[in-house]
Amino acid sequence: MRFHFPLYSSSSFSLVSNFTFISSLPLIFSSSHFSTFISMAPAFEPVSPPHQEAEPQTATPHHTDTVNNFGNDGQVVGSKSKVTVVGSGNWGSVAAKLIASNTLKLNSFHDEVRMWVFEETLQTGEKLTDVINKTNENVKYLPGIKLGKNVIADPDLDNAVKDANMLVFVTPHQFMEGICKRLVGKVRGDVEAISLIKGMEVKMEGPCMISNLISEQLGINCSVLMGANIANEIAVEKFSEATVGFRDNREIAEQWVKLFSTPYFMVTPVQDVEGVELCGTLKNVVTIAAGFVDGLDMGNNTKAAIMRIGLREMRAFSKLLFSSVRDSTFFESCGVADVITTCLGGRNRKVAEAFARNGGKRSFDDLEAEMLQGQKLQGVSTAREVYEVLSHRGWLELFPLFATVHEICVGRLPPSAIVEYSEKKPRLSLLEDPACYQ
């Protein structure tokens, strides 16, 4: 098998050579090709249960219903939070289901969960929001799953968010800038937000993570939730994990953990917003590559190699953009687990497989419209955005997998190029500065 991109050895990829090898895994990853990747030692940070946390400081009230006093068990005393989910696709509907099951049980939250729905007219002539509120089911994006009677679909974005002090954003990332512009001045600065969105915006000044876009546009703190989360499996309550990335306030992180956690959905907080979010974003590019491999019937060995190389590039890219990114984050659900599950299943892999089986002759737009019934791909647009960053900064030769995925997607290379060898050697000079990884 010839690879278009080099299988980096530990000597050629010096940027990761200073980390400690995990002695417990040598039998699994004995090849020198794996040694530098496995050196990302998972320094698991201990997470104290909510009841062991010190009592947090009183928050500035947003209005009379916002969180302002915590008891020793982390529950709010005398006030309740209101939650709105901004987005109602496949994953947005599952998120609303998870949250609604918990708001009924937790005294710190109002029972009702608002879900903003981009209004559509169904083939029956009915409005999607009306059908959701009548049947308690998103018949277009999550058919057959009851969301919870306390989920209220609302087609008016302003109305949906006006009373909320906890906002959950879960829409295709390409729509978020427009949504944020619509919400400017409509939410208070002390609202807490969390993004479940996997993608980034690329501007003239450089890449902007969606959580940063939300924070900058709306002036609010934004955490993130990412993980090995195929929505349809969580919808039917198959066990899954997720990672909450937070910045400074662990009490807020624990509130998000409580809001999402169920017996079948385990959530872990990590103080690394950029690392968690970039894992969720970049894995979709790797998944497109895995789909090409499946479409060309190249087998599991090739697919495993693509996944390993993809993880390597995810880590290097993340740490070049943000030196604060933690190595241990890549061992959380948002990292290696998310890469595995989306390379085995999920919409990006599925459509990329069809693209390769058609020899790249049918566009991703056509395949998306035919195969996803209104859902959106993230991997193709993310590959383009990553390529723009790499090209602008002169990093294309450092990330041959990422670059190749985009070039296949736009038709400059055939799908088979995903495993074709190139004589070009990666330029390592940009990655040799240890300061990048402190």
From TrEMBL:
Q: Does the keyword Transport apply?
A: no
Q: Can you cite a GO biological process for this protein?
A: glycerol-3-phosphate catabolic process
Q: Where is the Glycerol-3-phosphate dehydrogenase NAD-dependent C-terminal domain?
A: 272-420
The enzyme's first-digit EC class, named in words, is oxidoreductase
Q: Does the keyword Secreted apply?
A: no
Q: Would you name any one GO CC term? A: cytosol
Please give the catalytic activity noted in the UniProt record: sn-glycerol 3-phosphate + NAD(+) = dihydroxyacetone phosphate + NADH + H(+)
Record's family?
Belongs to the NAD-dependent glycerol-3-phosphate dehydrogenase family.
Q: What is this protein called?
A: Glycerol-3-phosphate dehydrogenase [NAD(+)]
Task: Name its species.
Answer: Gossypium tomentosum
The top of its lineage is: Eukaryota, Viridiplantae, Streptophyta, Embryophyta, Tracheophyta
